[in-house]
Design goal:
Elements lengths: L2 H25 L25 H15 L4 H22 L8 H17 L7 H30 L10
Helix pairs in contact: 1-2, 2-3, 3-4, 4-5
Length: 165
Amino acid sequence: MNEKTLNLTWAALIAALYVVLTFVANAAGLASGAIQVRLSEMLTIMPLLTWAAVPGLAIGCVLANFLTGCALWDIVFGSIATLLGALGTYYIGRRKPALGPIFPIVSNALIVPLVLQYVYGLEGSYWYFMATVGAGEIISCGVLGWLLYKVLKRTGVFTGTGQNI
């Protein structure tokens, strides 16, 4: 298969999975607010396996935020947080995979609290929201994402497809 087609397919699959997993978390009341554990954020580990995950995550986050009724500035800045996390995971995490989950955790923990305060007007300090969002990201990216990475690496899904792991 043509490598461009394969990368486009992976990006689309990752974006679609991000949207579906966000809907699952949203149905459980976990996708937004001061305390959030977005299951979709576990996919932010995927740039360790393929570059296609970077645009896939960004597009998936934009779509998920739009389709779940987030405010415009949440769509913009929440998606930027996910994109920055994916880029950090790709560029630095590929050299040291164990550092991969750190980038989406930090980018979301720094950016999303500002969205919660200034876009949604939630009562609470920046540091409180940083702690709650950061804890959710540790669960999503650090625990679930790392488990996903280990499973995908062990199964060799990306081996032999032009995607070196």
